[in-house]
């Protein structure tokens, strides 16, 4: 048996490496053999290949770490190759000419992964070879894998970080920790009284692949905290943003429609375009990069990645009413506007002295509104690129801003525990929504302005009558807690 395997490896090693003087090196470079997998189905990138890269290459070739300028976190990036070998990394149809295969097989130097890390198994190597020989085809499935919740169970983290209200005001969606809870309006009739609407917990959105370390389902939507939510204009789809991923859910069924990946960090902002054709995502690693991308909602395809959109995390996004522009606000204090779908930079608005946490457009598309952690709302003339007015009022940082349907009115929430309804035309505060005793993070509103919901540090969603400012109901997390 020993003889057999030695014979097998001799031609691969080349003559020099069998000399006794190089015994150590020969040991290191023992090539990994391929095996007969007896496989009929074509090798599929997401199912067969991506998990190998994730386990054995991601530490050095994804996120902030890209050794040799080689990023293996997505198919597109992989096919670009790295600094030195470029398109020689994967030569479709020819594993024997691909640096990726040869280095993983330990047949050329540098070997991958380096000898300090666990090597590929013969099975993994064979899958890699087959995949390249079969043409190195792009993924044909949506990535599904078991994802384990580690560290502090985010189920115990209660603050409501994101809220979305259905356009008709009949659905309220809130994120707490890594969970997403849906509340719906039901008709309620008490004897002798007129029929009223009551909001009750309906269900949680659950990704069945998210598990606790013991393998039990975590009943969660994402592995990490849910940072952002957006509901499609027709009220049928919900986008949720978390660390390095966005999920598009079908609200009627609670099913996952698309999973978008390839983000470098948290996804902290989401916005659908007016007809729901595009989904814009914002985020990025703090103090490094503002990541801004545009996806086709139906297919989940990336349309545009706006490079260097901001120099820090993006927290706010809004499409212009005519759909031609996308406005963004970020931790770099700027409000910027880009063309849709090209991503071409149009102009930027400078004046805030802290993170920009919310942006919006007036219905005529002529003015931009921004709310900031500097406590101030600003209204800007889009064409002239100038500020029209400052709107002070909040005592602490503004954390979110939301336009009310097709009106010049908008809502803000703040660390000062209040929500406010404003008018962009004259700068007036129309009303305040009080009753929260703690920091507010999120706000949502129905398109007619009648249903207003806020998300608070204390874990409560407060539901207000938008026309009067009256607190209608508080939606507590206990009602929504899934079975552990
Ligand atoms: C411990 C860190 C580490 C791990 C893990 C690792 N690599 Fe590398 N990789 C490097 C370094 C360092 C370089 C740059 C070396 C060079 O180009 O000479 C590199 C370069 C590469 C390149 C060359 C890119 C180019 O065009 O020059 C490829 C391809 C590659 N690695 C593939 C992989 C694959 C596939 C895996 C997982 C199976 C992997 N690496 C795991 C550190 C690592």
Element layout with pairings:
Elements: H1 2-13, H2 23-28, H3 45-56, H4 58-61, E1 65-66, H5 75-80, H6 99-104, H7 122-133, E2 147-148, E3 160-165, E4 171-176, E5 179-188, E6 196-205, E7 210-211, E8 228-231, E9 237-242, E10 245-250, E11 256-260, E12 267-272, E13 278-283, E14 290-296, E15 302-310, E16 314-319, E17 325-330, E18 335-339, E19 345-349, E20 356-361, E21 367-372, E22 377-381, E23 386-391, E24 398-403, E25 409-414, E26 419-423, E27 429-433, E28 440-445, E29 451-456, E30 461-465, E31 471-475
Parallel strand pairs: 2-7
Antiparallel strand pairs: 3-4, 4-5, 5-6, 8-9, 9-10, 10-11, 12-13, 13-14, 14-15, 16-17, 17-18, 18-19, 20-21, 21-22, 22-23, 24-25, 25-26, 26-27, 28-29, 29-30, 30-31
The protein binds heme C.
Heme C is lined by residues 56-57, 59-61, 67-68, 70, 81-86, 89, 99-100, 103-104, 110, 112-114, 117, 120.
């Amino acid at each position: 048996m020993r003889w057999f395997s030695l014979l097998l490896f001799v031609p691969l090693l080349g003559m020099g490496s069998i000399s006794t003087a190089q015994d150590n090196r020969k040991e290191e470079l023992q090539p990994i053999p391929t095996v007969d997998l007896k496989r009929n189905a074509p090798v599929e990138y997401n199912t067969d290949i991506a998990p190998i890269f994730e386990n054995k290459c991601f530490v050095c070739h994804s996120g902030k770490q890209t050794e040799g300028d080689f990023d293996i976190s997505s198919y597109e990036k992989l096919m670009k190759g790295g600094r030195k070998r470029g398109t020689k990394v994967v030569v479709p149809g020819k594993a024997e000419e691909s640096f990726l295969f040869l280095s993983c097989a330990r047949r050329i130097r540098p070997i991958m992964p380096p000898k300090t890390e666990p090597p590929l198994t013969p099975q993994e190597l064979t899958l890699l070879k087959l995949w390249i020989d079969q043409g190195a085809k792009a993924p044909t499935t949506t990535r599904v894998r078991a994802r384990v919740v580690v560290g502090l169970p985010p189920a115990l983290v209660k603050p409501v970080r994101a809220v979305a209200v259905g356009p008709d005001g009949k659905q309220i969606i809130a994120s707490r920790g890594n969970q997403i809870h849906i509340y719906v309006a039901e008709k309620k009739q008490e004897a002798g009284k007129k029929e009223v609407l009551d909001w009750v917990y309906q269900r949680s959105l659950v990704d069945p692949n998210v598990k606790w370390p013991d393998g039990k389902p975590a009943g969660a939507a994402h592995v990490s905290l849910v940072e952002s939510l957006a509901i499609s204009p027709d009220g049928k789809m919900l986008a949720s943003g978390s660390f390095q991923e966005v999920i598009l859910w079908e609200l009627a069924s609670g099913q996952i429609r698309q999973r978008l990946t390839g983000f470098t960090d948290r996804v902290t902002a989401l916005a659908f375009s007016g007809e729901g054709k595009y989904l814009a995502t914002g985020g990025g690693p703090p103090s490094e990069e503002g990541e801004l991308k545009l996806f086709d909602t139906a297919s989940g395809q990336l349309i545009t990645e706006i490079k260097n959109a901001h120099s820090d995390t993006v927290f706010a996004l809004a499409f212009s009413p005519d759909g031609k522009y996308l406005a963004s606000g970020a931790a770099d204090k700027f409000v910027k506007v880009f063309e849709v779908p090209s991503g071409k930079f149009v102009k930027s608005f400078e004046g805030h002295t802290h993170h920009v946490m919310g942006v919006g457009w007036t219905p005529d598309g002529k003015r931009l509104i921004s709310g900031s952690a500097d406590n101030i709302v600003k209204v800007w003339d889009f064409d002239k690129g100038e500020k029209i007015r400052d709107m002070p009022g909040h005592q602490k940082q503004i954390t979110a801003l939301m336009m009310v349907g097709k009106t010049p009115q908008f809502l803000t929430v703040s660390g000062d525990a209040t929500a406010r309804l404003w008018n962009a035309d004259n700068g007036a505060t129309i009303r305040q929504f009080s009753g929260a005793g703690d920091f507010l993070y999120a706000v949502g509103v129905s398109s007619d302005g009648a249903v207003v919901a806020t998300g608070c540090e204390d874990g409560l969603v407060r539901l207000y009558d938008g026309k009067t400012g009256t607190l209608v109901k508080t939606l507590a997390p206990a009602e929504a807690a899934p079975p552990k």
